[in-house]
C-alpha cells in the first residue's frame, strides 16, 4: 500500500499555550487536525466561561489564513468553580469538557483540586447535563512512587468517583499503564481513554538509560516496556473506548534543558506520520482511522469530520526544531524515520 486516506483526524488533548508560542505551534496542528480539545492550563488558567471565550478568540485570531480548524474549549476545574457558569458555557456550545488537574500533579496545576468533595456539586451538574470530565489521572501524594501514580489514582480516586457519579462521562487522559488500559476496558461507553503519540513509542529507558533525555520527559512519565506494549495493543485494537489525545505540550528548549526541566513532548508536527508507522508495525493500518478520527467523535457525541487526510509512503520532511517568538521548541524525535508522510488534506 502506497497511499492511506482517512477521515480528517481530531486531537482530543492538546496544549496550544498563548501569545507567540500559540502562533508558532497552532499551524502544525491545524494542518492535520480538524478539531482539538484545548487544555486550559495557561497562567493564569482558563477557569470561567468568559476566560474560555477570550482564549478561543485568541486561538481563532492566531489561525493561518484559510485554515479549517475548530478549537474545542475546556474549563480548568478549581474548588471555586461555579456550576452555573459551567452549565451556561456548555449550553451556549462554548465548552466541550471540564478538566480535572489534581493540585500539583503537573505543569500549571497549582489551582487544581485538592479535595474532590469541594467540586461534587459541579460534577453532579456535569453528570446531569452530559458534560464530560477530562482527568489527569495521577495522585500527588509524595509518598507514592512516580511510576505508580496512575495506578494509585485509578484505585484511590477514579474508581470511587465513578461509583459516586455513575452518569458522569469521564475521559482518563494520556493513559500510560496496563492498569489504565484494563480499567477503561472493564467499563462501559461512559468512560474513554486517550493515548498519546509518544507513549506508543517510548518507555522509561528512553528517558533514563545511557544518559538523561529531557525531551522525552512528560507527565504522566513513560513507564516500563510492558505498559507501552499494552498501550499499543489498546490503540490499535479498534476498541471505541480508546482514542487519540496527543498531549502535544510545547516548551522552549531552555525550559526543558535546565536542572529542573518542564514536562511535555511536542508531537503535533509528526503525530500522524508516527502513528501510521506504529499502526503499520502492528499490522493495524486499517484501524488508524478508528483511533484518530472516529472513536473520539463517537465518545463526544459529534459527527466525524467530512474531510480527509492523505498520507503516502516516504519520510516526512520536518525540522528538528521550530522557532517561536519565545525560543526554539524541539519536535518529538521518535528514534526512527517514519515510513509515512502527510501529503494532502481535503475539505469535506
Ligand atoms: O507532560 C505534560 N505536559 N503533561 C501534562 O500534564 C501537562 C503538560 C504541559 O502543560 O506542559
Ligand atoms: Zn496535557
Task: Report the C-alpha radius of gyration, rounded.
Answer: 19 Å
Shape: globular
* Series of secondary-structure elements, N-terminal to C-terminal: EEHEHEHEHEHEHEHHEHHHEEEE
Taken as a percent bin, the fraction of beta residues is 15-25%
Number of helices: 11
Helical fraction equals: 25-40%
**Extended strand count:** 13
Query: Gap between N and C termini, in Å?
Result: 24 Å
Major beta-sheet overview: 8 strands, parallel
Strand order of the largest sheet: 2-3-4-5-6-7-8-9
Secondary-structure-derived class: alpha/beta
Bound small molecules, which ones?
(4S)-2,6-dioxohexahydropyrimidine-4-carboxylic acid, zinc ion
> What's the average pLDDT?
97
Which stretches of 5+ consecutive residues score pLDDT under 50? none
Considering the chains and any ligands shown, give keywords for the structure.
alpha/beta, 348 residues, globular, three-stranded antiparallel sheet, binds zinc ion, eight-stranded parallel sheet, binds (4S)-2,6-dioxohexahydropyrimidine-4-carboxylic acid
List the helices and strands and how they pair.
Blueprint: E1 3-7, E2 10-14, H1 19-32, E3 35-38, H2 49-62, E4 70-76, H3 83-91, E5 95-100, H4 120-129, E6 133-135, H5 149-164, E7 170-172, H6 178-185, E8 191-195, H7 204-208, H8 225-235, E9 242-244, H9 253-256, H10 271-281, H11 288-300, E10 308-313, E11 321-324, E12 327-330, E13 340-346
Parallel strand pairs: 2-3, 3-4, 4-5, 5-6, 6-7, 7-8, 8-9
Antiparallel strand pairs: 1-10, 10-13, 11-12
(4S)-2,6-dioxohexahydropyrimidine-4-carboxylic acid is lined by residues 15, 41, 106-107, 136, 218-219, 247, 249, 263-264.
Amino acid at each position: 500500500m502506497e497511499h492511506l486516506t482517512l477521515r480528517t483526524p481530531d486531537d482530543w488533548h492538546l496544549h496550544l499555550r498563548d501569545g507567540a508560542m500559540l502562533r508558532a505551534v497552532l499551524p502544525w496542528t491545524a494542518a492535520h487536525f480538524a478539531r482539538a480539545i484545548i487544555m486550559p492550563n495557561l497562567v493564569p488558567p482558563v477557569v470561567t466561561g468568559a476566560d474560555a471565550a477570550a482564549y478561543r478568540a485568541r486561538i481563532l485570531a492566531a489561525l493561518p489564513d484559510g485554515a479549517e480548524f475548530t478549537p474545542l474549549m475546556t474549563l480548568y476545574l478549581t474548588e471555586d468553580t461555579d456550576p452555573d457558569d459551567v452549565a451556561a458555557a456548555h449550553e451556549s456550545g462554548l465548552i466541550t469538557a471540564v478538566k480535572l488537574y489534581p493540585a500539583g500533579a503537573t505543569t500549571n496545576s497549582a489551582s487544581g483540586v485538592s479535595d474532590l468533595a469541594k467540586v461534587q456539586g459541579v460534577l453532579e451538574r456535569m453528570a446531569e447535563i452530559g458534560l464530560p470530565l477530562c482527568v489527569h489521572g495521577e495522585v500527588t501524594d509524595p509518598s507514592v512512587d512516580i511510576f505508580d501514580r496512575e495506578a494509585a489514582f485509578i484505585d484511590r480516586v477514579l474508581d470511587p468517583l465513578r461509583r459516586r457519579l455513575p452518569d458522569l462521562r469521564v475521559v482518563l487522559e494520556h493513559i500510560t499503564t496496563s492498569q489504565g488500559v484494563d480499567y477503561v476496558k472493564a467499563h462501559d461507553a461512559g468512560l474513554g481513554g486517550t493515548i498519546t503519540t509518544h507513549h506508543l513509542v517510548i518507555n522509561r529507558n528512553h528517558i533514563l538509560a545511557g544518559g538523561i533525555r529531557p525531551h522525552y520527559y512528560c507527565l504522566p512519565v513513560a513507564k516500563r516496556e510492558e505498559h507501552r506494549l499494552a498501550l499499543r495493543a489498546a490503540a490499535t485494537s479498534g476498541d471505541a473506548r480508546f482514542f487519540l489525545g496527543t498531549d502535544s505540550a510545547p516548551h522552549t528548549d531552555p525550559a526543558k534543558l535546565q536542572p529542573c526541566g518542564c514536562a511535555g513532548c511536542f508531537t503535533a508536527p509528526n503525530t500522524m506520520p508516527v502513528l501510521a508507522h506504529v499502526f503499520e508495525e502492528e499490522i493495524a493500518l486499517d484501524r488508524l482511522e478508528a483511533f484518530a478520527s472516529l472513536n473520539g467523535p463517537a465518545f463526544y457525541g459529534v459527527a466525524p469530520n467530512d474531510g480527509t487526510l492523505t498520507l503516502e509512503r516516504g519520510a516526512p520532511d520536518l525540522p528538528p526544531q521550530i522557532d517561536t517568538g519565545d525560543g526554539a521548541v524541539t519536535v518529538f524525535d521518535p528514534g526512527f524515520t517514519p515510513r509515512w508522510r502527510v501529503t494532502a488534506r481535503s475539505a469535506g
